Amino acid sequence: MSHSPLIASLTRHKLTVGLLVMQVALTCAIVCNVASIIGHRLTQMRTPSGVAENELTLIESVSVDESANPLARHDADLAALRGIAGVQSVAAVDSLPLSGHNWSNGIAFEPNGPSMTSATAYSGTPEELRTLGLHLVAGRAFLPEEYISLDAAHDWAGINHVPSTIISRALAEKLFPGKDPLGKVIYPGDGPVRIVGVVEQMLRPTLDESESNGYVTLFSMLPDTASITYVMRSATQDRERILQQARRVLTALDSNRVLRNPQTFTHLRDDYFRRDRTMISLLLCAAFALLLITAAGIAGLASFWVQQRRRSIGIRRAVGATRRDILRYFHTENFVIVGAGVVFGVALAYGLNMLLMQRYALERLPWFYVPAGALVLCLIGQAAVLGPALRASGVAPVVATRG
After folding, report:
1. Is residue 218 within 8 Å of residue 164, measured between CB atoms?
2. Which residues contact 247 (CB under 8 A, 6 or more apart)?
3. 173, 164 contact by CB (below 8 A)
4. Could you give the CA distance from residue 403 to residue 347 in angstroms, rounded to a whole number?
5. How many other C-beta atoms lie within 10 A of the C-beta of residue 327?
6. Runs of H (alpha helix) within 116-189
7. What are the tens digits of pLDDT across the range 244-294?
8. Which class for 351: exposed (0-12), middle (13-18), buried (19 or more C-beta within 10 A)?
9. Domain residues of the chain, as ranges?
10. 3-state secondary structure (DSSP) of residue 26
């Protein structure tokens, strides 16, 4: 089939064709970026935290008795919680992955040197690794003599005196790519800290769009603040019962305290990603609506042109054009329009992505979203024009003699 009549027809409707091309281009750019954002969020939501998520129960304790020794109070609480049937281990920690309570430090290789990166600092009692289910892939756990007080009364001074740290594998690869990190010295504060172990994975309390979500340091510091989180590990089916018993046990030990956020880690994770799920739903609705509007625009224009061209279609049928020829003509015409929009949309998609990267620190648009988005738009365009094209192919040759 010669395309010269098709091109001539499109050039006679420059404004209409131009608007539809622009609509397809904007839809392509927005849908590709929306798909990228949703894909990234879904990947982030499925990222393992590194802890035994289905076995952990959490409860925060806030003491209002300023005269009490916090370390002694924590020891008494931990001993009581260990006595609950089904509790395998228990630890007091200052924060947890996905908890939102983040304490980060710059990591340097020399005193007052330039920071190589930033990493979350976790601290907890000696059973922290076992309770959280963290897997050591190299090195050892902390020795009893390595534990010191966090010294919160002196502005977190423990970070300047702690002798050792356990870091995540992601941080080890960042600081010492291709090298063994064990025995290396880093400076998260004023003093040197030796790396004695590496855990396979652990997420930070708050996540962002960067690769640093797994940059974690664990320090042999005993939390000594009035606010503390107790973590209990047990069988999955025992978590709710243990949570209720833990509240009674802690209240019986000291009624002059506030117990907050009793929950399982599963609930903590669900709560952290609640906004992400809402955002994904809104983005999906927006993308679907945009695709629907674009499809309606394509179908509407095709229907208008069929109505305007009924006599010329009848003439073509009278001189020998088959129904298949008419169908092919309208699908080809639509493909040219949508294809032009997709070409502009691809360039616009990368331009929009660069703007989002600058303004909102989003990740670079993965290449495979662009051809996928282009294919989806082409398929939607061909589907949208099918109805008008079928009506056009049904025009009888006798129409050419009317009017």
Report:
1. no
2. 59, 259, 262
3. no
4. 46
5. 16
6. 128-132, 169-175
7. 999 999 999 988 889 998 999 999 999 999 999 999 999 999 999 999 999
8. exposed
9. 4-46+274-401, 65-255
10. helix
